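Pipeline run #58 for the internal structure catalog. This entry was flagged by the ingest filter as a single-chain record with no existing model, so it goes straight to prediction. Upstream metadata was stripped on purpose; only the residue string is passed forward. Reviewer on rotation: M.T. Logging verbosity set to normal.
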Amino acid sequence: MKLHRIINAALALSFFVMLAQAQTPSSAQDYISRGSSLYEKGDLEGAIAAFTKAIEISSRLDNHSRDSDWKKNKSGLGDATMNFDKVRALDPLTAVAYANRALARYQLRDYDGAIADCDRAIAIYPRLSDAYNNRGLVRYAQKDYEGAFADFDRAILINPRDPEPFNNRGNARVESKDVDGGIADFGRALALDPRLKVVYYNRGMALRRKGDTDSALKDFDQALALDSRFASGYYGRAVILCDKQEVDRAINEFNRALELDPRFALAYANRGLALLRQHKDAEAERDLERAIALDPALKAEVELHIERVKKWRRR
């Protein structure tokens, strides 16, 4: 699981909020807030539209201010230097809108659009660590692990107190077979914020890869101690119980995960495989079909595991 956040301009950019509000009472900042709210509600297209409007407004402000400064300077009626500094102060607001729009595009798997938005954000405001983190997420999704490492490293260099790029770099390390490195990064993220249930889940899955199922189970338990409605925590426990051949208990945990998240494709897939191991073929088939319907990319992997379970049953 990756960590990402929409940037709240009212908090992240307090040093130039007053200037933006002075020039536009219901300005780009309002559209950034609206886009953030829509993003959290899952309305990604609406979020993109709001962030786009924020970009249009803040860009128009910049251009208007530059034109005004040029006219004042040419007529000798004002000092353009101070206003040009104010224009530059507006630029980070545009960068935030680009970085946030990139995240919405990433969720829609518009990876090219997301990369382009991150590039624009970084060009405007090279110290915006979230833009590097977001671009790293896209590169990770594209399996460009070296590019992802470079972006997460840069985000950490800019803001070493932010746990998110440590978690995300940990995922990239695990996927590139550096499991120990990934576990170390998850530990760094938790040292910065021990309340991150997603990081406990990620570390638990990494520990499982190393065969340390007991430690993995402790991490899933800790994730659920932080949030008893965290579906992935139950899923993680279920996978470990399957590893331990405790299939009945595992199915109960899969059931709980699916009660909390009825669109959890991996939980359907693994519950289906567990049911197949118990010779409950009709129930298993329903779960496996549901998993593929929710996430067609699972089809090949599900079919591979079905054959493995059937081979195991013939022994």
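catalog note: The domain at 229-315 is CATH 1.25.40.10 (Serine Threonine Protein Phosphatase 5, Tetratricopeptide repeat).
catalog note: The longest helix spans residues 44-75.
status: ready for reviewer M.T.
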